[in-house]
Write the C-alpha cells for this entry.
Amino acid sequence: MEKQHTISVLMENKFGVLARVAGLFCGRGYNIDALTVNKTYDPEVSKMTIVTHGDDAIIEQIDKQLNKLIDVIKVTDLSGSDFVERELALIKVTGTTQKERVEIIKLAESYAGRIVNVQDDELCLEVSGESNRIEDFIKLVESYGIIEIARTGRVAVSRTAGATEDYSDL
Amino acid sequence: MEKQHTISVLMENKFGVLARVAGLFCGRGYNIDALTVNKTYDPEVSKMTIVTHGDDAIIEQIDKQLNKLIDVIKVTDLSGSDFVERELALIKVTGTTQKERVEIIKLAESYAGRIVNVQDDELCLEVSGESNRIEDFIKLVESYGIIEIARTGRVAVSRTAGATEDYSDL
C-alpha cells in the first residue's frame, strides 16, 4: 500500500550532495512530496528530510540507494517509529474588515499561531505543527481568501531517549 | 561583496524539477546553504526557497539561469526587499537534573519556543523565527549539551500588501 514516509538523511556538508540525491530520486522515478536541507550542529554535516510516498518495496529501494551514495552518513525512515515531526507555514490571508481581522487573529491564536505582519487588508500568519495540523488551519482560514502560502518541508527527530540518529552516534 | 540571499522560486509541481534546479547549482558551482521545497495553495505549483551566497554578479547569474529553466514560473530575490523570513528548528538538549530542565524550559519560553517532548534526561524543543534568532537560541542552550538539531530551510513572503510573488499574480 502507498504510504507517506519521512526519510532523514545525514550527509557530509559537501558541494553537490543535494544534486546527487535529487538526481537519484528523479532518475529512478521516486516521488518527492517535500524536501528540506540545512546544516546541523556539526558544520561538516547536513541533514536532509525528504517526504516521499510509495509502497514498501519502493521505500526499501530508496533506503538502499541513498545508503549507496558517497557522502551519505546515515538514512533513517522516521515514519514507522515514534518521532516528533514539525513543519512551519507562512500564510497570507485577506482581512478586509476589522471584524474579519479579529476573527483571523482568534483562529491563529487557537492554533498557537502568530501574527507576523499586517499591511492594509492583508495579515501574514505563522503556524507550525504536524503537516495535517497545518492543512486543518488552512481549511479554517481559506474562506477569508488566501493570498499566498509558503511552507517549509518537514523536520523530524526521534522521541526515544538515546535514539538520536545524529552523527554523534557513529 | 559576498552576501547571503534568500531566493524564492515558484515552479510547476512536476516530476524532476528539483533535480534540474539542484543540477544547475551544482554544475555552475553555486552554493546552497539551505533549501526547502513544498507545495503551495495551488496543487499544481510548488515553491522552493534557496538560501545561497555570492557576490552580486553570481546572484544575477543564478536569477537568469533559474528563469531559463522550463517549469520555473517566477524567481524572486527576497533579500533586498522588505520580507518576513522564518525557519523552524527541533533541538534536543540534555537536562540531567530537575534544575537544568526548569532552566531549559524557561529559556525556551523566553524565545516563544515550545517543549515538544521530554524523555528521561532529554528535552526536545521547537523554536521558530529568523535564522539568526535560532542561532542565538542554540548558543543559549548549548552549554547543557546538544544531542541533535533538525532545522527546516527558510521560507519567506513579502511584507508589502499586493506584492505577493504568488502565481495568482501572473
